[in-house]
Structure formats: structure tokens, C-alpha cells
């Protein structure tokens, strides 16, 4: 916002460059123009699941290996606080995205502040995370897929109030439906799909086993 830009500019005169527009476009375009890698990355843009993931991947390319990442509008995905009569629903997309980034082994959480109007998470990139291969895949196919982490618990949004859970899952709030579809599209690699199919194969009746093709 303009107020935030004015505040930051007053604190760091001559050191702030503002770029207006869609961060999915402006951030990649800034590559190569920064005087030095970023030490602090604040992710507080659009709240769709895919926007948060794309912003992280793009900003990480401009950041130092030891950079800190501050994600705003994040709640505890196991019992997200519902404050102000359901106005916390906007946290669902960013929270689900952060959970998947951590589940994929890309982020390590350093500190959390849940509850109230300001809810955030401070994180750092795992040194073993191969973000370069993810960016190469984007350049090659135009698609972003997070690494599969089938051994980690699946990320699902759970709200502290039943009404909020209903809004998140119901047709009156397609935001939740869109987030889940994006989560499935971006976080389920081939290995995860295979893992999901194995229990179904095990439950098949024994007589169906005779119809397998020879190896």
C-alpha cells in the first residue's frame, strides 16, 4: 500500500525502489537489476494459493541464501483462528501454501505469531532445497510443481469455528475450492499420485489380479 511504502521510504531514504504491478510479473523482471541480494523477503501480496507459491519461488531467486522470509496473513492450519466474524478466511490460501512449501522441504520455520489481526511466520530456505530446478521447470514447461513429500502429513485447513469451516468448504466461498484445486495441481507430483493409487490397488478383489498383462 502507499502508506506502507511511505513508511519504509522514510525509514530507509534513498534505498527503496518501488515497482507497481502484478508481482508474478514484476518480481521476475527485477532479476539482474538489484544492487545486492535481498536479506529480508516479505510475502504479502495476493492471497491465492498459487500466487503465494509463485511469489516465494520468484523472490527466492533474488535473495541471499541466508535470507529471512516473512509471510503475512498466516494462521495455524490445524485450527485457524476465526476473528472478526469470518474475516480470517483470506488467510486460508497463504496458510495452505506455506504448509505445502514446508511439506515439500523448501522452508524451515523460525518463528510464528498466530492469532489476532496480525498473524505471520518467519522462515528460511532449507539449504538442501533445489529451487533452481523448480525455476528451470517453470522456464521449460511454464508450470510450477512442488517436490513431492508423501511421507509428510497432508496439508488441510481446519478452522477454530464450525461456521468458518463451512464458509471455507462451501459454495459460498469458492476461495477455498480454488485453493484446494491449486494445491492438488501444484503439490502432487508423479510419486505422490502413485502413492495415492497404491491403497486402491491393494483393495482390489483377488479375481481381478488375473487380468494383468504379462511383463
TrEMBL record:
Pfam families: Methyltransf_24. InterPro entries: SAM-dependent_MTases_sf. Residues 195-215 are annotated as: Disordered. Residues 203-215 have a biased composition (Basic residues). This is Uncharacterized protein.
